[in-house]
Amino acid sequence: MPKISRRILYNPSAYTGTKTASHQNAARNREDSEGPLGNEFTSISAKQFQNKYSITCFQRLSSTKHTLLDLGFHKTLSTQASSVPPATLEPKEDKLLDAHVEAYDTKEDPRMFQQHRPEYQSLSYDKSETLPVLPLEEGDLILHKVTVLKSGLIPGTIVEYFCKLSCLPVEQHVMVRSNTKFMMLCRYGVENIQLFSISELTDILKAFIRLDIPPNHSMLNVYETEFCRRVWDMSLDQQLLVADLWRCLGRSVPRYLQISFSYVNLHWKDLSLSELVQLIYIVGEGRRVPQDLMQKLETLVLKYLDSFNMEEVGTISLGFFKSNSAFSEHVMRKIGDKVSGQMADMSNYALVNVLKMFRYTHVDHLEFLKQLGKVVPPRIGTIGIQGVMHITLACSALHYLDEGIMNAVASSLPSRVMYCRSKDIAKFLWSFGSLNYEPPNAERFYSSLIDQMHRKMFEFEKFPEHLLTCLLALAFAGHFPGDLIDYALSAEFIQLTRESKFELRKDLFALDASVEIECPDYNGNRLLPQFRQEVAEMLWNFAKKEICVRPEVTEAVSLLEVMLGGPQYVKNHMILPHTRSDDVEVHLGTDRKPLPFNLEAATAAKGELQDIGVSLTDNLMNQLLKGKPSGKSLVGSKTQTETCSQKEAVEQKQVPLTDTILNVLTKSKTSPKNRPSELRPQPRGMKLAIQVSNRNHYCYGSKQLLGLHSLKRRQLQKLGYVVVELPFWEWLPLLRRTHSEKLSYLHHKVFNPVL
């Protein structure tokens, strides 16, 4: 019986959660986005520099306006700092697990590779570098000098002041950014930007990083435009350093990267190992890159692969993954060979990144997967929840079921579920559901994730695709939470799906149809009939072009029509359109004889049928195929292993089984109810759903069905069908055998189904 929860009325307000704010960013966003610094440069933009890159100076302020009262700097800082409210944290949750395990800084984790070679020092910014702390009094003096020197500040002094102010205690940086004197210094920096050298500009960016200047500040538009102008005057090392500085500022600079990539395209053969890895890291963080450049970089990856350490292998994998660039199968196998022997020494982060690329390329490296099963389970508790999600998702994408990995994940997850985003919940459920695996703690595992789904309803409203993924995965496992399904099929949620960038109608249809078959007591929202019809037609149109025309399918349909007596006895269609795969339907009477039911095919073939023929019996089929009566099928007999010469000798004694003979034999004139014009629904008998399977229906290297195909067979059985499979490991080799052997195999499958 399906596990359907009692219906609970959906109340959106019941699922709202407290949003976590970062200690580092909350105060900055309040002070900078709305404060003096945030507003002062709104009139300055890159548009001022698009043509000749000339700088339009600010309107000169009067000396009176520039003259500021010399207030005590440290006093002002302490007064303003006390007014900043603390960041809000979710209560209690942080106490349940060590914070360092779940911490996930997207700027820091990808940069671990930079600590393993000294060459990266000139290519990247080291946030861990410790600089002497500037006393508050010196900071006060510097800001006072800004008001005295005014526009007389020279470029070198401006750079020096920025660098020194960035060395003030971190807790004072918010007050520095909002100080009007610092605002004046920023103004003079923009006015003199063309006079700075490249090294001075990079020093200013470093100071901005330490001061935590907000990435969307309009002042940075000016600096970005200036760097774009100077790309071709910079060395490759300088270009990579500047790109890294922008990354540390958290600012996206696609135009700068585009120009820099054009430069690299001409000099890619000169890249050193460290330059290549740093470049691929930047490519991944920028997300967009010319594919012809990535093909060149792949050549260098292969060149340096033996020299990469494990962190660098993780970095290049992540960079290609994030930029939607796939390694060739050859490179992936080389990476698999390298990692398999050193996996125990890899960091969790690097290992997860390599797994992402295996998932993306769908390359099955068996030794890599075996080592994964040894290394990962003991580490699950030390891997952040997002990393664990990517591990299970990679196994799911590769159709690779390792019970040790899945059990370790399922055991760890309930106590850590509060760290799951809506995306994580969806991917965990999908991984287990699609692999059709139920862990030993299934009840606790699923209940904890369903509870977290309720807590994350506000996220599902923003990402409706995640809710549908969750519910479909739960359906694979036979779980149907009534209140969540009711909401997912509501007009309100369907409208959210229409606004999504993903095509979600097929998922809605699959959920609705599954509920109809498996939950007879459900009385919540349902899709409109017109909606279901439109999606079913869309899926069938796709299946006719892509699925039903596969050689192994067309061969089976053609032979079944010959064997059973014509197209009126066979129908190749989607019995369950929501499962997105076809079936060959056959009806048998209580006497196990085929019944005509395909009215459409019968009408088309009506003029071609001949009123001659005899009944096709098991005994006659055996005589035709083997030359003597027998109740045994060809499957498993010695005939399959005969040599070619033996086969020829046997076949010479058999009746030649041609299509013409079979057509005459199977078109019986003795039973008027078999004639197409008199086709009618049969009150009793057996409906067969014959499925021509392939490797993608099963877990890797096993005969365990994946979740979707298991769900399909379960639902077909609920509708009264007997599922008959032509498994790929039997049917595909038979396609190369004789006509009579294939017919004998199908005869055995159809008339001797396992009930």
TrEMBL record:
Question: Where would I find the RAP domain in this sequence?
Answer: 688-748
A Gene Ontology cellular-component term = ribonucleoprotein granule
- According to the UniProt entry, which residue ranges have a biased composition of type Polar residues? 15-27
Region annotation (Disordered) ranges:
15-39
Which keywords does UniProt give here? Mitochondrion
Would the keyword Mitochondrion turn up in this protein's UniProt record? yes
Broad class of the protein's primary localization: mitochondrion
What GO biological process, any one, is recorded here?
mitochondrial RNA processing
Q: State the superkingdom.
A: Eukaryota
Q: Where in the cell is it found?
A: Mitochondrion
Q: Which InterPro entries is this protein grouped with?
A: FAST_2, FAST_kinase, FAST_Leu-rich, RAP
Could you cite one Gene Ontology molecular function of this protein? RNA binding
Q: What is this protein called?
A: FAST kinase domains 5
Organism, scientific name: Chelydra serpentina (Snapping turtle)
Upper classification of the source organism reads: Eukaryota, Metazoa, Chordata, Craniata, Vertebrata
